[in-house]
Amino acid sequence: MQLNLEKLKTDLCTSLCAEISLFQRSDNRISISTPFSFSDGDSFLLMAEPLPTGGIRVTDCGNTLMHLSYSMNVDEILKPGNRNELLQKIITDYSLTNNEGELFIDAPADEAGKAVFKIGQALSQIHDISFLSRSKVASTFYEDLDRVVREVAPQADIRKYYLVEDKSNAEDYPIDYRLDFPGSARPLFLFGIPSNEKAKLATVIIQHWLAEEIRFTSFLVFQDQSKIGRSDVARLTNVGDESISSLGAIADMRRKLERLYSVDTIAQIGS
Q: Hey, CA dihedral for 57, 61, 66, 68, is it positive or negative?
C-alpha cells in the first residue's frame, strides 16, 4: 500500500491547524493557543507582536521561567553552572533571546508558523530542566552542596577540596570541605555523598584520618540516602559523626551544627 502524499499533507495540516487558535488583543498583540503545555497541564503562554522591521516576534512574556519557579529556585539556572549551560544551549540551538526572563524569537512574518513551533520545542526543553536527574548531571549536586554550605555557615572559614597539611599522602584522602568555626579548635570535615562509590570512598577517608589521630568532626550530606546501599550507609554512618539524608534537610543540618558549635555562628536560613 502506497501512502497518498497530498492527502496525508492535507490531513496533517488540518489536524495541526485545528490545535492552534489566535486571539487579537487590544494592545495589537495576538495571543496564540497551541497544544504545547507544562507537565501540570497549564498551556504555554505565547504572544505574537509586530516588529518595526515588518517581521514578527513570538514571546512567552516571561511565563516559562515564572512557571519553572513554582518547582525550583530559578536563580540556580540563571547563574553559572550546569543548569545554566543547559539553558544557554537550548536558547542558542533554537535561536531564542532571553531578555531578563522573557524568552522570544524574531522571524520574518511569512515564517511565523516555524517560529511558533520552534519556541514551543525550546520551552518544553527548558521546562524539563526542573526534572533534570542529578545522576545525569552529577556536578549539579556539588553545586547545590556548595551553596548550602556557604549559606548555613557564613562565618566559618571554609576550605574546599581540603588536603590535610604535613601529610605526605594527603592527596589520596581529600576532604570535600573543611570548616573552621570561631572559638572551636576542632574542624568540621564535610563530605557530599551522591553515590555508593562516594559512600565507600568517604568511609575509607574518614577511617584513614581517624587512624592518623587527626582531630575533627565529620559531617555527611547525602544527595538521597534512600538510594545508597544499606551496607554502604551502615559502614559510613558507623565511622561518621553527623549526617543529613538529603539537601532538603537543611533545617536538620543547621540544628546539628548549632549543637556542635556556637549558635551565633550558624546562619538562620529556611529549609
A: negative
